[in-house]
Every structure is written in structure tokens, then in C-alpha cells.
Amino acid sequence: MRQAEALAIKNGRIMAVGKRREIMERKGKTTQVIDLEGQTLLPGFIEAHSHITASLLGMAFGTLVFQALCPKGEDVWRVVKEKAAAAKPGAWLFFFGIDPLVQDGFQLPPMEEMDGYAPENPMIIGWANGHTFFGNSLAYRAANISKDTPDPPGGRYCKDGNGELTGRADETAAWMPLMKPFSDSIFKDPTSIMRGMAKYFSVMASNGVTTVTDELFIPDYTNLMIAASLLPNAIRTRAYAFTPTGQVWAPPFFGNDMFTIAGVKMVVDGSPFTGTMASCHGYIDSEFARSRGGIDAHKDVPVFQNESKELITKMYRTCLAKGYPAHFHVEGDKTIGAILDIIEAALQENPVKDHRTRLEHCAQPTYEEMQRCARLGVGASHTIHHLCVWGDVLPQLFGEDNVQNWNPFRWDFDLGVPCSMHFDGPMTLQEPLWALQTAVTRKTPSGRVLNAKQCITIEEALQAYTRIPAWQLFMEEKVGTLEKGKYADLVLLTRNPRNVEPERLREIKVHSTYVAGKRVWNQEGN
Asked: What is each CA distance from 453 to 171, 414, 497, in whole angstroms?
């Protein structure tokens, strides 16, 4: 990856990269020059998989209760009590980031307990994995969901032994209707949404991110996102539409260089951390999994949980025929194998050469499955915080032998599978430098190394956060590298990651971030 002392920019695009003396000579009325002043210049980071709507609701209109902010269960409930006490009767309360697997003393909240904390307010609490949400009685009433409401295809409203709602909603098809009254109350106010989006862009830019991918985009919000792309501190957004009905209203790559609805997102299995990942090995029967995660190791986990095999097969064939890039949410090896079967059969019927199909998360593939990916031209984007947040939890859910090749970056690079990494926001704090550190060390929170054979080099890790995701998203002509003619989407770091000890990469600070040559964030706050 190219290193430089200075950069010349014209009309938002890179004009020249090189030595300070050479570049400074180009400075003029129409040519902008960035003097690095000893900082390290990199292409802006590309967050390859995120969820903007959920991030916005949690960050700007709710309260985040991640383990990093609330280490123990008592910390979570203290925050809930404080917010509930301060809220006006009838006002929505939304919390996101609970995780009984890593927050000591936290138990999954039954509806009665949530009613006790917020008797006058509809309240929803989201599990950090994003696959399970909990609501109190008022939230369910606002959503018109009762014990008699049938489970939607691919989702579940959990009930106790007496058939009463417990407050838990599993998977997208169930929690989206539960969340809808709250999200509708927010999105009806465009002014508030623009303030929230400005805050979201600022947080992402503060971590050096210049492009973010929205992997569960709801087309109803298109006009709001177009407006947000015009904000002074906007970063680029690449959206992949969630289409549970199988209908896509926009043509491929609808939009402009700041906001684009590029393709389609399909959700197959669930989450490793809620007992809904389809794995050939299954979950182990442990007290930890039962008591902390409510996971039944004896339960048969189906592959196609969120959308049917028939719909996914039809949608993928439509994507190939009409030119939509397709992304599949897949976690376990059983699901990965099933989706590769669908992909391979569809490509045999319609051998599109440059389809750039991508497997999202792709946490627990076999080596043979990654070989198939290489042969079929299928890429992968791995969830890096599975290692740096839940790396010590994984063996307690699946057994030591079955997690050694979790997020197999080394296989990807050795086999030639285009791979990127992501934080799946808002599932945890989104820090690309933390991701780089994890990819090259594979260290868990306790400091143990989860199979050093899957480590990659710092140069490979940088590629997986810049050049490769740009290619995966059909943006390689615009961003991802420091080349003449590409947009000047840049991040300046206080130190060079190549010269820092791997265990200290997260200590590097973002000095400033630029989109099309315009500074959208810096550490001085101006």
C-alpha cells in the first residue's frame, strides 16, 4: 500500500501523491494540497457491513449499554432506571447492547421485570447481536402484538409454559414489527433524523471511516438517506436492500457516489450467540450456554430461518439476471454449504462472470467451503468483533476444536477469496484500528490467541479494510487506494500501523478524515 508525504487534490479527486516538495509545487487556486506533517496517510477505511438505521436509533435516539460501557448487569439496570425515571410518561425508551454472555450478572429480562422498570413507558431493549429484542407490555401493545399473534415466517414471539408472551422477539421478522412504532415515531421528524445522521457520520469519521455499508436497508428511508448524503460531514453510504417479499423497486446501483442502493441483502440463519446459528457441529450442552444465553443445545437449528429456501433461490437468480450484487447473511458451516449450493446451481444456469456475490459474517466455514468460494468467485466479509469481544465465549458455546478457524482470514488470502472485515454496527463499538489489531493477533479479551495459523499480516489487514471492500462493493474505480483520479477519501493517523507492535495497533489515533478532499472530522474538533 502506497505511502506518501503529501497529496494534491483537484475537484475532490487525487491529482498526485508523493514527496512533500514535489506536491507543494502543485498548490494553486484550484488545487488543494494536504501536507501530512508527519502523519500517516491511508485510504479511508471502508466499513463493509453495518446497519445505519439501528445504529442511528441506538446512538442518537436511544441509550447504548454495551459491555464496554456497562460491564455488569447491575450497570445496565442502573442506566435503565435512570432513563426511565427521567422520561415523560408515554415516551419511548430504547436501549441497545445488552449481552448476558459477557456482562456478568445480567439475566435475560422477562416482560414483568421490564414492566416494573418502565410502567408508564413503552420500552425495548436490544441484544448486542441484533437478532433478539425484548419489549415490555406497553411496547407490545403499541405494536399490536399479543399472545394470539401468530409467529411471522422466520421469526418468533417467545411464550412461557402458560402461553403468555415473555417479551422476547427472535429474528428480523419478529423484532421489526415490535420496533416499528418506535422507529416510525422517530422517522416522522426529518429535522431530528438529520441531526442524528450528522452525529452518526461524525462518530464513523472519528474512526477514519469514509464509506459505510448499510446491510439491512429499508427502501422506505431512501429520501431521508439522500438528504443525509448532502450533510456537510456526510460519508459515503452503500446500501443493500432487505427484501423479505422478494421485490426490489430500484434498479441496481440506484443513486450517486455519496448514496447508492447497490444490491440485495438476504438473511439465512441467525446468530451464534442466541442459539440460532446452523452448524454441523451444533452447540455444546453447557451450563454457561443455558444460563447465560438461554441456548438449548438439543434444539434442531434450521438453515433457512429468516427467508425460505425457495424465496432465496428465486431472489438470487433474479439478482444474477438483473445485475444486482447479492449479499447473504450466513454464520454456520451448514448454512454456508447450503447457500453455496444455491449459488453454484444458479451460476451454472446463468454464468455471470463478475457477480461479486458475498457471504456476510461467514464465521464458521470449512476449508472445503472456502475452496468453493474461491472457485465460484464468492467473497466473504467476516465479523471481527466475534474474536475481540466474544472470543472467550465461543469455545463455551461450540467447543474448543470447533472455533479454531473462526473468521479464517489466512485461508481467504491463501485461497484468493476476496475478504473484508467489519464490526456489524451497532453490535459493538466500531474501531477499524481495533479490527486491524485483532486480525493480525487473533487475541481474545483474555489475551489468548485463537489459532495463530489464521493470523494475517498488517498489510493484508489494511487491504481488508480498504482496497478489497472497495472491490467487493463495485467501488474500486472510486475509492480504496491512493491513486490518481480516485476520490480523495482519506484518513490521517498519528502513527504508521506498519511500524507499530501488533498488540498496540488500537492505540493509534485518527488525526483527521477527508471525503472527496473535504475534511469531515479531525481530533481538534474543527
From this structure: 34, 12, 21
CA angle centred on 80, ends 76 and 81, rounded to 5°? 120
* Residues present in the chain in total: 526
Q: Report the pLDDT value the prediction gives residue 245, as an integer from 0 to 100.
A: 62
Question: Helices 172-187 and 52-60 meet at what angle, rounded to 10?
Answer: 60
Q: What is the pLDDT of residue 31?
A: 75
Listed in sequence order, the residues at least 6 apart from 192 whose beta carbon sits closer than 8 Å to its beta carbon are 61, 186
> In angstroms, rounded to a whole number, what is the distance separating the alpha carbons of residues 346 and 377?
13
Dihedrals φ, ψ of 23, to 5°? -70, -40
Torsion of CA 268, 247, 346, 171, to 10 degrees: 0
Pairing verdict, β 510-515 and 490-493: antiparallel
Q: Extract the C-alpha cell encoding 417.
A: 477469496
Nearest to 269 by CA among 260, 258, 279, 257: 279
Dist CA 326 CA 367 (whole Å): 22
Nearest alpha carbon to residue 127 among 84, 87, 167 = 167
Percent of the chain that is helix, strand, coil (3-state, to 5): 35, 20, 40
242, 306 Cβ separation under 8 angstroms:
no
Cell match 482496497: residue? 467
Angle at 215 between CA 210 and CA 218, to 5 degrees: 110
Under a CB-based contact definition with an 8 Å cutoff, are residues 438 and 449 in contact? no
What's 250's DSSP letter?
A: S
Which triple of cell numbers denotes residue 316? Answer: 438470487
Task: Report if pTM > 0.90.
Answer: yes
Asked whether the predicted pLDDT for residue 23 surpasses 90, the reply is no
Q: How confident is the model at residue 2, as a pLDDT?
A: 54
179-230 per-position pLDDT tens digit? 999 999 988 888 999 999 999 999 999 999 999 999 989 888 899 999 999 9
Phi-psi region of 132 (alpha: psi -120 to 50; beta: other; left: phi over 0): beta
Please answer whether residues 409 and 439 qualify as being in contact, where contact means their C-beta atoms are separated by less than 8 angstroms: yes
Stretch 234-262: mean pLDDT, rounded?
86
* Nearest alpha-carbon partner for 480 in 492, 464, 493: 464
Cell of 412: 481467504
Which single residue is written with the C-alpha cell 430461518? 305
Distance, in Å, from the CA atom of 271 to the CA atom of 214, rounded to the nearest integer, reads 18
pLDDT tens by residue, 455-488: 999 999 999 999 999 999 999 999 999 999 999 9
Side chain identity, residue 200: Y
Q: What is the DSSP string of 420-483?
A: EEE--BTSS---HHHHHHHHHH-B-TTS-BS-GGG---HHHHHHTTTHHHHHHTT-TTTSSS--
- For CA atoms 35, 41, 46, 50, the dihedral sign is negative
Question: Among candidates 111, 108, 135, 138, which has minimal Cα distance to 124?
Answer: 135
Domains identified in the chain and CATH numbers: 52-186 (3.10.310.70)
